[in-house]
Structure to design on (1167 residues):
C-alpha cells in the first residue's frame, strides 16, 4: 500500500485530524466516501432506489502499488508497448512498470530505466526511445544494448537558465507532425519574472535541434496537450496576471496574458509582435482588454478558482473511442491542488473555442499532475505534491481511473445558442421536472486582468431563465436566458433536473465560458410575462470591511477586528507572529494563550498562494473548512469565512506578501481551539491548535 | 571520513583547541577538547574531549598552558604557514540598550529612520522582537559596547531573510549599518545575508548604534551580530535563542551499486553552474563537471552528494552539495581552438560558448562518456576512477577538423606548474599532481595572469587524437 505520510516541512509533527484521515483512507472504498460529491438517490440493478450514487459507481480508482523506497513523485508518464508504463519522477528517475494493469492479479514490477535527470516534468515514448524535458534541456533516452537500462542520454536542445528554482520545463508532448512541444515556466522573485530567454514561452523542437518559439504569456504552463482535432491547449494557474485557472487555445504568435515573456518578443525568432508596454494593467476583464489589444488571446474555458480546482494541470482528450464512457472527444483536465479531474466540453463559435467545465472525479490520493491513456482505455494518473501541498493522503502516487461501463446521469455537453444554452444529457430526463425554468439558475461573472495575484469574481449578475424546451426524447433541454454577456463565464446550475425515476444528476452544475454568442434562430416560447430587469446578484455588494470600532462580542463584526481596541491602552497581552510556509502550513503548529487574554495575531502571508486564518471552536476546523468550500461564487468576497457559529475570529484572505493584524480576546473557556486556513483546498492540512490555558 | 591528500601535497588544518581547566587547588575541572577541527575544508572533529595528554606531548601531566607540538614521525613531513591566535576568554559586552522601531516598506536606511518611531524603549538585547512586526520594519539600537582590550575588531552582521532573490532581481531587500564611537564599522547592503567590517578600538566603553531594515515579506526576520578581536574569540552580541533555525532532514544520493550522473545546479568558485552534473562512483571517487563548457570543476573522495537543497520541499537552490574535501580543478573550459599557439586561453563569459553538448553514453558498468561538438571537432570526454581507486583518469578523444586553428586541452592551471623528473607535473603550489599516459602529446607550460597553465595540443590529422592523464590528490 502506498499511503505515505505527507512530508511536512521543518520536521513538524503530523496533525491529529490529518492522521485520522490517513487511517480512514487505507481502503479505496473509504477514499471514495471521503470525497464530497453530491451523493444522491440512485438506482440499483433491481431498479429501485438504493444507496446514493457516487462518482465511484461509474469511474473506479485503482491504485498502482509502488515499491517501498521508490519516491515516485510523478513528473511524466508514457505508455510503452507490451503493457509497460514509463514514469519520470521529480527526483530525476525514469521507472518502467511492467504489468502496470495488474493483469491476472499479478503485482506490477518496477525497474529503473534512467536516473540523474534534473527534475523531469514530462515523458513521451516514440520510435523506441523515451523523451524527457528536464530543467535545462530535452533529453532522448535509449537502451541500445537491451539490458533494460538507458545507456544513451542524448541532449537534443538546451535553453538558458538563470538558476532560479521556479524555472521548470514541461513536456515534451509530440504534435501530430512529430514536433516536440515544451513549455517553460517563469522564475519567481516575489512575482513571475522572465529572467532569461524563452521563459514564459511555448516552444517547438525538432530532433535535429531546431527550435521554434510558438507563443508567450505563459506563467505556470504545467499542463498542455492536443484536442481531438489536433489543436494545442495549455492550462494556467491562478497567480499574478491570472485571475483564475483556465485552458487556452495556443496558436503561433499568441500572447496569452502574463507580460514577462514579452521581454523576448523582439528576438528575430519570435512570432509575437506585442511588446511589454502594450499590456495595460487596469484590472478590467481580460476579454475587454483583448478586444482592444489584438494579439492577446483569452482562455477557451475558465475553471473558476476554488470551485473548479486551484492549480490546473494536465489536459487529456478522450480519444478512447468509447472505452472511457460517453464523453468521446472531450477534455479531462487535472488539478494538482484539489486532487481532482474536471471535464471540459469544447465547441467553436465564430471560429473561437469556448465551452463548459464540469466536475468529473475527485478523491485522488495526491495532487494530480499527469494524465495519459493506458492501453486498456483506463486513464493513468500521476501525482505529486511536494512543495505545494494538496488534498489527499499521500505525497505522491500513481492511480488508474477505470470506467465501470455504467453511464452516469450528467450533462454530456452544454452548447451556446443565440438566446441561451442547450444542455444535452447522458440519458433521458423527466420532461416535466427538466422543463421548469426554476430547475435552473444562471449567474454570469468574470475576473480582473491585472498584475495583482488572482482575482475575485466581479460583475456578477443573475440571468433569468425565461423558458425551457425539452426535446421529445428527453435528451436535450434548451434554455432561453436573458442578458448573457460575451466574454463572461456563466455558472449554470441544474438542481431541479431529475431522471424519470426521480434521481438528481450526479453533478448538477457547470461553468460555460461564452467567448462568442452564436448567430441563428431564437426559440419561440409560449407567451410570457414582460421581461424583468436583470437581477443583480446579492454578491455584487461591496466586500465587507472590518469596522473601525470594536463591535459587541459575538456579532459578525467582532469576528474581524483589525484595529487594537481602545480599551487595551495600546498594549496586547500577547502578540503572535504567524507566517505561512510552502506545502500548506502555518509556521506555528500550536500557540498557547491564557483564557481571556488580549491577543494580537499578525498573519504574514509569505507563501506564493493566498491564505487566511480562521479561529474556530474546538474540533470544528473540518466543518468550517467544508462550509467554506461550499460558498461557491460568494466565497472570494467574503474571504471564505462561512456564516457559522463555530467561527470565532478571522483574518481576510491575504495575497502573497501581504500581512494583517487582528485583535481579539482569547476565549474564557480553556480548551484546544483551532485555527485553520479556509481557502479552498487548504483546510485539511493548514491548521494549528490554539490552546487556551486557565 | 578520510579527507587527506596524497603524499607530497599541502594540506590544511584549522583547529580550535581549548586547554584543560583547573580549579584554584590545581585539580582539573574540565578536559581539554578539540572544539572544531577542519581538515582540507571538511569538519573532522567537533567537541572531542581528551581525557589526558597524547603521545609526544611536552610534559607527562596536564597543565593550563604549554607549547604547541607538531608531530610527524612516519616519513618526511613539512609544515608551513603556522598561525595561531590565543584567546583570553574575554568578550565584548552591551549595556544601556535603547531601541526605536519604525514601520514601513523602506528603500534605504535614511528613509527607514527619518520618520517618527512607532514605539521605543529599553531593549534587553539585540533582536527583531521589539519591532512588533515581521515584515517591512526598521529597528535602531543605541547603547554602550565595552571592549576588553585595545586592538583590531571584526564585526559580522547577518540579516537572515536575505536569500537568492536579490541576485535575480538586482534589488536589496533590507540593509543595515553598525557604528561605534561615531565611526562607521560596516554597512550591510542587503544583497547577501552577511556583511563584515573591521575597526580599531581602544579598550573601554564606546557608544554603539546598530540600525537595520527589512522591506520584503518572508518568514524570517532575524538579525545577528558577531564580534571577534585581539584574544577575543568570535562570539555573538545579539540576543540568544530568539531566532530559531530550522534544520532539514538530510537527503543524500549514494552510488553504492552503480555510478550516478546527477544533473543539478553546481556551485563552484562562488558562481552557480546551471548546466552541470556530479558524477559519483562506487569506488568512492567523484567529480563535478560543467556540461556547458566541458570543464572538470572539482573532485573529491568519500560520500557522494547531499540533495536536500533539491528534494526538500520546492528545492530552493537546486544544488547537489559534495560531501567531502574538494580539490578544485578548473573554472573555465578545458578545450579550445587557438588560432595561434601564443593566444590567451579564451574567456567564454565574455564571448559566449561555442560548445554544443551532445549528451553522454554509459558503459556497461554505468560510467559516462560525455560528447561535444566544438567548432568542427567531435570530442569525447571520459573521466573515471583510476586503477588505484583514489585518483581520476581523464581521456579526451577528438576527431574532425578544427575551425581556424589547433585544438588544445588545458589540463591544469594554477599559481605554478612544476615539471617533475618523472615527467609528471605538480600544480598550484602542490595542490595536485597530473601524470600523463604514455604516448600522450607533449604538454606545454605557459604563463597566465594568475600563474601558469598546462596545455596539450591535439593534432588531428584525419584520425582521432587521444589525450590521457591521471589527476592525483
Amino acid at each position: 500500500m502506498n499511503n505515505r505520510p505527507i512530508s511536512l516541512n521543518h520536521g513538524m509533527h503530523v496533525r491529529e485530524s490529518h492522521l485520522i484521515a490517513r487511517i480512514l483512507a487505507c481502503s479505496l472504498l473509504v477514499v471514495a466516501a471521503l470525497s464530497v460529491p453530491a451523493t444522491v438517490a440512485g438506482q440499483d440493478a433491481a431498479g429501485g432506489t438504493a444507496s446514493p450514487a457516487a462518482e465511484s459507481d461509474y469511474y473506479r480508482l485503482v491504485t498502482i502499488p509502488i515499491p517501498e523506497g521508490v519516491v515516485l513523485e510523478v513528473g511524466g508518464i508514457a505508455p510503452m508497448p507490451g503493457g509497460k508504463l514509463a514514469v519520470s519522477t521529480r527526483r530525476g528517475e525514469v521507472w518502467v512498470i511492467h504489468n502496470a494493469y495488474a493483469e491476472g492479479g499479478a503485482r506490477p514490477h518496477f525497474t529503473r530505466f534512467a536516473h540523474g535527470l534534473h527534475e523531469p516534468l514530462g515523458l513521451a515514448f516514440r520510435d523506441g526511445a523515451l523523451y524527457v524535458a528536464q530543467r535545462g534541456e530535452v533529453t532522448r533516452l535509449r537502451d541500445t544494448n537491451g539490458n533494460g537500462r538507458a545507456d544513451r542520454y542524448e541532449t537534443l536542445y538546451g535553453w538558458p537558465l538563470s538558476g532560479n528554482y521556479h524555472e521548470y520545463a514541461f513536456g515534451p508532448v509530440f504534435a501530430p507532425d512529430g514536433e516536440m512541444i515544451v513549455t517553460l515556466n517563469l522564475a519567481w522573485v516575489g512575482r513571475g519574472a522572465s529572467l532569461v530567454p524563452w521563459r514564459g514561452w511555448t516552444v517547438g523542437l525538432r530532433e535535429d535541434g531546431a527550435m521554434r518559439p510558438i507563443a508567450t504569456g505563459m506563467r505556470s504552463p504545467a499542463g498542455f496537450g492536443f484536442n481531438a482535432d489536433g489543436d494545442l491547449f495549455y492550462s494556467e494557474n491562478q497567480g499574478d496576471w491570472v485571475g483564475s485557472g483556465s485552458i487556452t487555445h495556443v496558436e503561433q504568435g499568441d500572447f496569452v496574458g502574463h507580460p514577462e515573456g514579452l521581454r523576448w518578443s523582439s528576438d528575430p525568432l519570435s512570432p509575437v509582435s506585442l511588446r511589454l508596454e502594450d499590456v495595460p494593467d487596469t484590472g478590467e476583464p481580460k476579454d475587454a482588454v483583448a478586444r482592444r489589444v489584438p494579439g492577446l488571446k483569452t482562455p477557451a474555458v475558465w475553471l473558476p478558482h476554488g470551485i473548479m480546482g486551484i492549480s490546473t494541470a494536465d489536459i487529456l482528450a478522450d480519444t478512447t473511442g468509447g472505452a472511457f464512457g460517453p464523453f468521446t472527444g472531450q477534455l479531462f483536465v487535472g488539478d494538482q491542488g484539489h486532487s481532482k479531474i474536471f471535464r471540459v466540453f469544447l465547441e467553436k463559435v465564430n471560429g473561437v473555442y469556448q465551452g463548459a467545465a464540469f466536475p468529473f472525479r475527485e478523491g485522488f490520493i495526491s495532487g494530480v499532475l499527469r494524465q495519459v491513456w493506458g492501453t486498456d482505455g483506463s486513464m493513468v494518473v500521476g501525482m505529486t505534491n511536494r512543495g505545494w501541498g494538496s488534498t489527499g493522503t499521500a505525497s505522491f502516487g500513481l492511480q488508474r481511473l477505470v470506467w465501470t461501463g455504467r453511464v452516469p446521469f450528467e450533462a454530456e455537453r452544454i452548447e451556446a445558442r443565440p438566446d441561451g444554452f442547450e444542455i444535452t444529457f447522458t440519458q433521458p430526463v423527466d420532461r416535466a421536472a427538466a422543463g421548469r425554468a426554476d430547475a435552473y439558475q444562471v449567474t454570469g461573472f468574470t475576473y480582473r486582468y491585472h498584475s495583482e495575484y488572482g482575482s475575485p469574481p466581479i460583475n456578477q449578475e443573475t440571468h433569468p431563465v425565461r423558458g425551457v424546451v425539452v426535446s421529445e426524447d428527453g435528451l436535450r433541454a434548451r434554455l432561453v436566458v436573458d442578458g448573457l454577456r460575451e466574454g463572461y463565464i456563466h455558472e449554470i446550475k441544474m438542481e431541479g433536473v431529475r431522471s424519470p425515476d426521480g434521481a438528481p444528476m450526479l453533478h448538477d452544475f457547470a461553468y460555460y465560458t461564452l467567448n462568442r454568442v452564436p448567430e441563428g434562430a431564437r426559440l419561440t416560447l409560449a407567451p410570457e410575462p414582460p421581461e424583468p430587469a436583470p437581477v443583480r446578484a446579492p454578491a455584487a455588494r461591496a466586500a465587507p470591511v472590518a469596522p473601525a470600532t470594536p463591535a459587541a462580542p459575538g456579532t459578525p463584526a467582532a469576528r474581524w477586528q483589525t484595529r487594537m481596541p481602545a480599551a487595551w491602552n495600546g498594549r496586547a497581552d500577547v502578540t503572535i507572529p504567524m507566517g505561512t510556509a510552502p506545502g500548506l502550513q502555518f509556521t506555528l503548529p500550536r500557540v498557547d494563550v491564557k483564557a481571556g487574554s488580549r491577543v494580537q495575531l499578525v498573519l504574514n502571508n509569505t507563501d506564493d498562494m493566498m491564505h487566511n486564518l480562521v479561529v474556530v471552536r474546538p474540533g470544528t476546523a473540518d466543518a468550517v473548512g467544508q462550509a467554506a468550500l461550499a460558498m461557491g461564487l460568494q466565497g472570494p468576497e467574503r474571504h471564505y469565512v462561512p456564516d457559522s457559529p463555530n467561527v470565532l475570529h478571522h483574518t481576510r484572505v491575504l495575497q502573497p506578501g501581504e500581512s494583517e493584524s487582528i485583535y481579539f480576546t482569547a476565549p474564557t473557556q480553556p480548551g484546544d481551539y483551532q485555527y485553520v486556513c479556509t481557502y479552498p483546498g487548504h483546510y485539511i492540512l493548514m491548521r494549528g491548535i490554539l490552546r487556551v490555558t486557565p | 571520513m578520510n579527507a587527506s591528500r596524497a603524499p607530497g601535497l599541502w594540506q590544511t588544518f584549522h583547529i580550535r583547541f581549548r586547554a584543560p581547566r583547573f580549579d584554584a587547588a590545581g585539580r582539573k575541572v574540565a578536559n581539554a577538547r578539540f572544539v572544531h577541527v577542519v581538515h582540507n575544508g571538511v569538519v573532522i572533529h567537533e567537541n572531542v574531549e581528551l581525557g589526558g595528554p597524547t603521545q609526544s606531548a611536552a610534559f607527562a601531566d596536564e597543565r593550563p598552558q604549554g607549547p604547541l607540538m607538531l608531530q610527524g614521525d612516519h616519513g618526511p613531513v613539512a609544515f608551513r604557514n603556522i598561525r595561531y591566535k590565543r584567546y583570553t576568554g574575554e568578550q565584548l559586552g552591551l549595556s544601556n540598550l535603547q531601541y526605536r522601531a519604525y514601520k514601513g516598506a523602506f528603500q534605504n536606511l535614511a528613509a527607514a529612520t527619518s520618520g517618527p518611531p512607532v514605539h521605543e524603549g529599553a531593549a534587553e538585547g539585540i533582536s527583531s522582537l521589539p519591532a512588533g512586526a515581521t515584515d517591512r520594519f526598521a529597528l535602531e539600537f543605541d547603547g554602550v559596547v565595552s571592549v576588553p582590550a585595545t586592538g583590531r575588531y571584526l564585526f559580522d552582521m547577518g540579516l537572515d531573510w536575505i536569500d537568492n532573490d536579490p541576485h535575480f532581481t538586482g534589488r536589496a531587500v533590507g540593509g543595515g549599518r553598525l557604528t561605534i564611537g561615531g565611526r562607521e564599522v560596516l554597512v550591510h547592503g542587503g544583497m547577501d545575508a552577511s556583511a563584515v567590517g573591521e575597526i580599531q578600538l581602544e579598550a573601554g566603553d564606546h557608544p554603539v548604534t546598530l540600525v537595520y531594515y527589512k522591506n520584503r515579506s518572508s518568514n524570517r526576520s532575524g538579525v545577528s551580530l558577531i564580534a571577534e578581536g585581539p584574544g577575543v574569540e568570535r562570539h555573538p552580541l545579539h540576543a540568544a535563542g530568539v531566532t530559531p533555525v530550522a534544520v532539514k532532514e538530510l537527503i543524500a544520493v549514494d552510488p553504492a551499486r552503480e555510478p550516478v550522473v546527477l544533473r543539478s545546479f553546481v556551485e563552484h568558485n562562488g558562481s552557480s553552474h546551471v548546466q552541470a552534473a556530479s558524477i559519483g562512483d562506487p569506488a568512492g571517487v567523484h567529480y563535478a563537471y560543467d556540461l556547458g563548457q566541458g570543464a572538470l570543476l572539482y573532485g573529491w573522495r568519500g560520500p557522494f552528494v547531499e540533495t536536500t537543497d533539491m528534494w526538500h520541499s520546492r528545492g530552493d537552490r537546486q544544488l547537489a552539495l559534495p560531501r567531502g574535501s574538494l580539490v578544485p580543478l578548473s573554472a573555465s573550459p578545458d578545450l579550445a581552438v587557438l588560432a595561434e599557439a601564443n593566444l590567451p586561453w579564451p574567456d567564454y563569459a565574455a564571448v559566449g560558448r561555442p560548445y554544443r553538448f551532445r549528451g553522454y553514453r554509459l558503459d556497461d558498468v554505468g560510467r559516462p562518456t560525455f560528447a561535444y561538438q566544438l567548432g568542427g571537432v567531435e570530442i569525447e570526454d571520459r573521466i573515471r576512477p583510476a586503477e588505484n581507486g583514489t585518483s581520476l583518469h581523464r581521456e579526451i578523444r577528438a576527431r574532425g577538423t578544427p575551425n581556424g586553428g589547433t585544438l588544445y586541452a588545458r589540463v591544469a592551471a594554477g599559481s605554478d606548474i612544476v615539471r617533475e623528473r618523472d615527467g609528471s607535473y605538480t600544480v598550484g603550489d602542490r595542490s595536485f599532481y597530473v601524470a600523463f599516459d604514455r604516448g600522450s602529446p607533449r604538454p606545454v607550460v605557459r604563463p597566465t595572469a594568475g600563474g601558469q597553465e598546462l596545455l596539450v595540443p591535439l593534432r588531428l590529422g584525419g584520425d582521432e587524437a587521444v589525450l590521457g592523464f591521471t589527476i592525483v590528490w
Observations:
- The helical segments of chain A are 16-24, 28-34, 286-292, 431-434, 621-629.
- The two ends of chain A are 44 Å apart (CA to CA).
- Residues 16-24 of chain A form the longest helix (9 residues).
